[in-house]
Amino acid sequence: MNASEASSATAQPTPPMGFPHAPAIRTVTGADILASLREGFADFKRAPLFGLFFGGVYAAGGLLLLACVSLWDTAWAIIPLAIAFPLIGPFVAVGLYEVSRRLSSGEKLSWGGVLGVVLRQRDRELAWIGFAMLFVFWMWAYQVRILLAIFLGSASFTSLSTLDGFLKLVMTTENGVMFILVGTAIGAFLALVLFSITVISVPLLLDRDVDFITAIVTSVTTVRRSPAPMIAWGLAVLILMLVALAPLFLGLLFVLPILGHATWRLYERAIVRPTAE
After folding, report:
1. pLDDT tens-digit profile of 230-261?
2. Got the DSSP string for 103-139?
3. Domain ranges within the chain, ordered by starting residue
4. CB within 8 A of 35, min separation 6: which ones?
5. What is the pTM for the complete model shown?
């Protein structure tokens, strides 16, 4: 019995309303979340070099962003980037999904095979999810600039360009605290939107020949049908990724692959495979 068949779901699996050709969705439970984490850790132990490679690529991207912020004297961008950076993890973790898919199906693991699948996604529907993620990220960056103008528009350039000055400004002034509170609320909403449209859609587009609209609807429907477990999973991913950023992004070498593998295992539990497979 595979992971999807072992799901502790109790409701009858059905496709999203209005999308009869979309895959059927099971109800996700807390037990599914915990089991997916265990299986994700097991996948990492079975193929650690792949995990460390993709985790290293992601960590290198974080260090590059940090270097750009320092080079351009835009310390105010530290907080929005720290919140937004973990949210693109599902897209970066495509290679990890492919590793878990092969482990699950008993296929041979090879660097050429895994990287070849990752590179082929640029010509498939998955690229449209990348555009959707970029759009949400752009909205988040735009909102931050608006909030800066509203709450911190009178601050000096020095206060906003140095990390010490910016942190002192947002932690010790009334306007700074309001900037954090309002920005966090808006960021949380956008994070929920981004999580909802990607948590299932990215592995689904890798696994099946469906269009990106169907994939997004399937992902959002999965979250809507099991809101508490799925949102808890999203919060756990965000918190663990933020913690992994602390030691110069080095924690991502281990956290990203485990969460990436676990996300694939959760996908297997949430989405019913065709009987022909």
Report:
1. 999 999 988 898 888 777 778 889 998 999 99
2. HHHTPPP-HHHHHHHHHHGGGSTHHHHHHHHHHHHHH
3. 30-270
4. 3, 6, 265, 269
5. 0.80
